[in-house]
Amino acid sequence: MHFLINDQISNLALLSGEELVDQMLQVDMEHSIQEQLSWKNSLYLLIKLLNNEGFGNLWLAAEYSLTADRRIDAIIFGYSSQRQSTAIIVELKQWENLAPNIEKQKTNVNVCIGNRNEYRVHPIYQTVNYTRDLKAHHEVVANKKIDLYAIQYLHNFIGDKNAFFSEMYEEYQKLSSSFFVKGDEQLLVNYLRNHFDTTKSSKQVAMDFLEGRYIIGQVGFNGLRDVINRKDNAIMLEDQIETSAQISQIIKEFTHSPKNTAIIIKGAAGTGKTIIGIHLLFLAQQYGLKINDMVFTFAKSRMLREVVKNEAGLMQHIPYLDGIASKDYSLVVVDEAHRDTDINKTIRSLFSHSRRPKIVVFLQDDHQRVLLEEAGSVSNYRKALHELGIEPFIFNLIVQKRSGNQGDYVDRIHNLFFDCTKEISSKSTFEIVLSDSLKTIDEQLLKMKDLGQTAKWFAPYDWPWKSRNNLTISNDIEIQDKDGTIFQKQWNPMKNQYEWYKDADKTAFNQVGSVYTAQGLDYDYTGFIWYDDLRWDTNNNKWIFDISKVKDPTFVKQVERFLSSHNYSEAACDEVLEIFLNQYYVLLTRAKKGIFLWFNDKNTEDYVMSVLKR
Questions:
Q1: Backbone angles phi, psi at 71, to 5 degrees
Q2: Comparison of pLDDT for 2 and 235, the residue scoring more
């Protein structure tokens, strides 16, 4: 996480107000004069007070960034008298008094600042949300390694502080003992002495917190339900936070000066595009956009749409992209945008036919186009937008979150398929297990399920979907294993795919997922059958595809039509090969903790494992 300054309080107290500001600006210059004045006044006053009252051994960090553009003014670190690591959030305000809250602002979220006659977030509401965020997502706080508290200090406030707890703010009364105004300095000091042992150095507590990561956890899609209920869904880290902060500024500028705006967020499988896309719906509400004027939509993906509807507890399905043209939204977030089949039509319907300006966010990955007709590449979006005079903002998510932000497995897959040279670590905890027995993998996946993990089989579409209309057929996939035993599985069902995703019954485990039911979803462990439609040619050191092995009629027709129309040229074959590689890339990147691999072709096995285990 990001912060502007941290040090022992006794050291910070040696600085003048100007020197304190200068040091903070050396970390980040992009702060307004008003912010700098608040550091020079409120923050400097707090540091001096703490040092003069004997808290010099404690540690303080200032301007600690949370998600988007939210920042904590200060955090004090130390040990309690029981040697428990402790952190106290401090929200600082320079307000002098409050004015009555007029009728249209009847909410306990905002208060009216008397001397400015403007509305600001209630200080207690702010710290409650900061605390909630850290307890949910900061690994050190979430694991209860640090006790977390929060206080508010309004050092200029000379009005009646009971105004912060009266009428609509009554529910904050239970937190009033940690709320301090001018004249409450001794109460503030006593509060801190009850929480900290001032004799002990506290650097280690601060370092544990400041070096701690935001943890991703199992997110699911209930973040959309939170957003609809005006709650923050943010479960973000590193580049997601930075991207969110930059887009927050774009939304803010849009509300002041509306104009058609396009944002492309690209990222590999597992980088959290959907999470940030949903979070933008929450951010937009903070700048005054109405939830009914926003929409989260899919370019394609019946499976993912079904899962989101159920996980988010929605009454009806999220609309597809081609079904939203009739409503003029202010903000449109398009997930799986790489699967769009008519970019020019999409851009025209979103922008040219609109009665008012809008923001459209495209979440995409060039490498997750799995059919030749899918045209949602960054270059195609840029070209279509350019024709309307719109230059998109483009953000790239890099940090891998699907494997718990701890591995580089997806980078290895990129190196395997796409001529990349991504740096590979030797410290990955992601498990890559090779087995020559499908039965053994089946047993291992079942064992993981018994331990409470999620597990799924995936395979390329190299067997016909005989059970599509007849569920009594159990042998869609039938392979004679290397020990002579017969391995049989069904494909995933055509209907009730959410129950399959949730493993609602024993049947679901024995149904194998295809490339069409894989995108956007993940599991703890997966088993993958690498068959013969994509193989490594050891003689020419290149990937080759075999369309005769594919039993997906839609894909086969597209390939045959495409190759024929291009006279089976080398360039056309390369485009088809790219789609094959994309399909395997999608299928191989569904796991968060580990993958079990089985190969039919020995040469392919040797090459793949040499890259993945390198």
A1: -135, 140
A2: 2
CA distance 474 to 491: 9
Coil, strand, or helix at residue 62? strand
Name the 3-class secondary structure at 161: helix
3 state DSSP class of 336: coil
Task: Tell me how far CA of residue 431 lies from CA of 398, 453, 595, 596, 614, in angstroms.
Answer: 21, 14, 6, 8, 13
Angstrom distance (rounded) from CA 527 to CA 571: 33
CA gap 204, 79 in Å, rounded:
10
Contacts of 595 (CB under 8 A, 6+ apart): 409, 430, 431, 432, 433, 525, 526, 527, 528, 588
Is the Cα torsion angle 244, 403, 311, 363 positive or negative in sign? positive
In contact, 378 and 264? CB cutoff 8 Å: yes
The Cα-based distances of 590 to 300, 520, 596 in angstroms read: 18, 8, 12
Percent of the chain at pLDDT > 90 equals: 55
φ, ψ for residue 581 (rounded to 5)? -60, -40
Q: Average pLDDT for residues 325-353, to the nearest whole number?
A: 88
Per-chain mean pLDDT for the chain: 87
Give the Cα separation of 440 and 446 in Å (integer). Answer: 10
Amino acid found at 472 = T
**Which DSSP string corresponds to 520-573?**
T--EEEEEEEE-SSEEEETTTTEEEE-GGG---HHHHHHHHHHHHHTTT-HHHH
Greatest pairwise CA separation for the chain in angstroms: 85
> What is the percentage of the chain residues whose pLDDT exceeds 70?
89
Which residue would you say has higher pLDDT here, 241 or 274?
274
- Which residue in this structure is represented by tokens 């500001």? 21
Mean pLDDT, rounded, for 337-360: 89
Name the strands in the sheet holding 523-530, side by side, starting at the edge strand that comes first in the sequence.
Answer: 431-434, 591-599, 523-530, 455-458
- pLDDT tens across 85-130, in order? 999 999 999 999 888 877 545 566 788 887 656 888 899 989 988 8
Tens-digit pLDDT profile for residues 278-324: 878 878 888 888 888 888 888 888 888 888 778 777 766 778 888 77
d(CA 195, CA 81) in angstroms, rounded, equals 7
Instruction: Please give the Cα distance from 7 to 203 (Å, whole number).
Output: 8
